[in-house]
Amino acid sequence: MSCKSCKKELKTVTPDVTWKDITEGGIIPYAGNADLFKTGDWRSMKPVWIQEKCKQCLLCYPVCPDTSILVNEEGKRTDFDYDHCKGCGVCVKVCPFKAIDFVEESK
Amino acid sequence: MAYNLKEAAKKPERFTGGHRMCAGCGAPVVVRQILRAMKPEDHAVIGAATGCLEVSTFIYPYTSWNDSFIHNAFENAGASISGAEAAYSAMRKKGRINYDTKFIAFGGDGGTYDIGLQSLSGAMERGHDMVYVCYDNGAYMNTGIQRSSATPKYADTTTSPAGKKIPGKMQVRKDLTEVIANHHIPYVAQTAAVGNMKDLYEKAEKAIYTKGAAFMNVLAPCPRGWQYNTPDLMDINKLAVETCFWPLYEVIDGKYVINYIPKNKLPVSEFLKVQGRFKHIFKAGNEYMIDEIQAEVDNRWATLLKLAGQA
Amino acid sequence: MAIRERMSGNEAMAVAMKQINPDVVAAFPITPSTEVPQYFSTFVADGVVDTEFVAVESEHSAMSACVGAQAAGGRAMTATSANGLGLMWEVLYIAACSRLPIVLACVNRTLSGPLNIHNDHSDSMGARDSGWIQLYSENNQEAYDNMLMANRIGEHPDVMLPVMVCQDGFITSHAIENIELLEDDKVKAFVGEYEPEYYLLNKENPIAVGPLDLQAHCFEHKRQQAEAMKNAKKVILEVSAEFAKLTGRKYDLFEEYKTEDAEVVAVILNSTAGTAKYVIDQMRAQGKKVGLIKPRVFRPFPVDEIAAALSRFKAVAVMDKADSFNAAGGPLYTDITSALYAKGVFGPKVVNYIYGLGGRDVKAADIEVVYNDILKIASSGKVESTYNYLGVRE
Prior knowledge:
Chain A has 107 residues and is mainly β. Chain A has helices spanning 3-6, 90-94; strands at residues 45-49, 69-71, 77-80, 100-104. Chain A contains two helices and four strands; from the N terminus they run αβββαβ.
């Protein structure tokens, strides 16, 4: 389960915040709000989930550095979080059933 | 509780995407799994030394950490978490906090083996109820791949470049796991992210839930610094373990336990040849370097086997 | 009903800490502050405080642990001197910019090198840009009182800055003098509880402290920090007024001694001010109109008040027990002359005396030399040199 399913409302500080309104001491009281920051545009390659081949072995979800393979409440993986996936390809290599394709990112 | 990949998958994610670590970095993979070992109801205060992990996961105004997090400076993750843990003890006694809190400090090999060694040593010796996790990527990666005392011999780094006269780092790497084991703390573990993550998860669980000081040294391959094909992260971890370059073991109350003894111990060259930082040692005339590295690995492995009574 | 006691400056600071009963004390020994954590350790061992004492392995770790403890939501205190403060240097800045109201007992000793365990102000002066509030203390009573006020000042929501309370190493830290202590329950009531809005141990609202703060936001955080230091002056005066009601002992931004009709004054921090008061009394008996201004609050620097106070004198000798080695004058002198200029006060002639470095004994005769110098300057209007060393063998 990732932040996307915990339904917590995420907040952040805007780039134009004034010194009076900025959080004191640089504290960020919005735990896990990096979820709002999209890193999907880093990709030059893209993993594609081939559901028919996927045996739900779950070897892929823990190897993602970017928490971009989401697992639902039943313990089954769902599709990639393309907002955050950087296209590193580690999951592609790890899948024993070739259920993840690795294709060029279309721009 | 015995590790079950599917059950562990259902646990809440404590580390979000949206951080700026390199694509394919070994460190966040390690962090995710370690934090997953926590009980869902427990709160953590996590500290990190300045380094790739801290700097990329905590750029104002974003934090990738769902728990409380503190970054202080480069060399004091041990001391900072010691202080937080001491405050917790005091406040718990006074009744101002009435729930369990776990204290986990993360540091790279730079902030742990080198500049942070003193602070780590003090924290361990004082026996704070905390875990220190070193994510060892074998160099000061954040500042651009400079050598550390964790860098393997002959590795090419920017301050120990493989040049015409000197072929990379000329010193063997320090064994920090042993140094901390000799602090006689309740739990020490050397681990890596391999297979279904069982080794890493179970050790994290033990470390977090053992009362007193615990230390984990976790291999964290760096695609930039080690110069390997990025998608091969899990293969690299596996090779490190199968060659006995990075043995998986624990020291539990002083007793050594090796968790994995490879049936077919691979020659260390299998691990070295897939990394660009070692490509110079495969040139003709440099065979002695590979032999040296092999001898070093074998020596340490033999010593470990003896310590564990598994020789 | 105050408790009459006699004790050293170090013990006085330790007793204040005992009465404050912080959550964490993380300290490492260094002469001459060592006794503070030693006394405190006895309190811990005897169970008279609830504090967790962290016997850290260096001063860098002492301040780091204080940062961790304070950020976690506890009250953290420590004590150090000289190179201990030097070793804490980067963490001092971090504590201040993270807005953590840690309290540090600074028993002033010269920074190496050379190695010297005796008093001067080079340690705390070296930290004057760190963002810490700095209070200076002439004797054990002031050290004790300043320690009691430090938490209230630092923890004020308009401030939220760390505070260091300074006193002279050996001279007052080890000298046993009379002191009036406050009762435990009165201290407790005055100091109150530390209840931060944001703290690491808060499960309901976890926070992250100490970000990588890039160009887009760092500047705003610094501006905010500057505002906090500006607010500190008002808060110090308010807390001091409340303290005066409680104890009868009045503390301002600086003390003025026999300045009402003085022609010339010396400006001196800490214990040497006490020697100066004695000299003033002697010289006044000879009809010389001399006085003293003894700053208590060095950070924030009370520009308006100092400029106003000094404006009516003909000559001022600023005595610095530290040198900036800027080839121009010591830190106190630099701040004072800059304050005068900023406020358009050009009347008094201001000269600097660097004195007592490395614990060189400062005698009444030396102070008399200073006053005679500035009396001469007052009458002649001529200044031969502004940057002077007092008491060095020529």
